[in-house]
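Q: What structure does this chain adopt?
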Amino acid sequence: MKVRAEQLDAQLKRQQEALPVYLVTGDEPLLCGESVDAVRAHLRRLGFSEREVMHVDSGFSWDSLLESANALSLFAERKLIELRLGSQKLNRSASDLLQRYLANPAPDNALLIICDRLDRSSKQSAWFKTIEQVGLAVEVWPVEPEQLPQWLGQRAASQGVELDNDALQLLADRIEGNLLAARQELDKLALLYPGQRIGAEEVIQAVSDSSRFDIFALTDAALLGQAPRCQHILQVLRQEGNEAAVVLWALTRDIRMLHAVSRGLASGQSYDTLCQRERIWGKRKQLVRNACRRFDSGLLEQLLQQAAEVDLAIKGQRPDDPWLLLSQITLALAGCAQPWRTLH
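A:
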């Protein structure tokens, strides 16, 4: 069976007996951690009082999983075996071994597999389908920006406080993308204003700016045409001590990618073929397609020339502020400014 993280608690409450295997997969640290904690707590209630943790790396012996499952416990009648895959992929022999184990699982053991987000090929593999058939697979997805205020409101309500719409939007802006920071700030608000309705003013007084951004959030915001968000991300990146050279690298990489795709489309090549060549996957495919409609190759060539000038400013070979120039390139990518022609 496959469920989303928000469905997990209800599903576990319906289970009177332990399943042989549970899988938690995703890249959102808070929601993955809470899902894993929920599975552990559920199994403790069912008598799984011993826990063994195995970290899978390139040198991991999968036979040790069978050895652990077959070993008699000295301390408890029922044991949880926790297998931490991280980003490791299962090869053929590991997949076969895991399927053999799940075909005849030890009755007093439960297996909990924790891994990063699985790609499509992994979710179509035989070992994953076996887990779906005999166990429970929990897929954890990040909270999208437009869903964040609602998520915050539900989370706050579970802690006995209510945030008005302005407070929710402000809090979402302050902690964008960082659910661990969101939990911390909601805990703080619940302590400061227990059982109260909280407005924007209370949030301003209590919440620090915990926005978590990376250079890829910046480039995505630029391609989406979100100029104010671009400026905020750049400000946070600079305040957090990020190097201007790293930001320039990310912007230049995407400008080159857009240039290659635009030229390919102009020559009649298939967009899917271009995406495969440029390694554009998932939601980014539509994002890049829309951005290509806004730019011609000449404009993108201008931006590449300006990126070279920013590089000179970073190296101290021009007197300009590189962060100001990065801001101008970003605004041009967002469609809110024209590229400059020369730097003085």
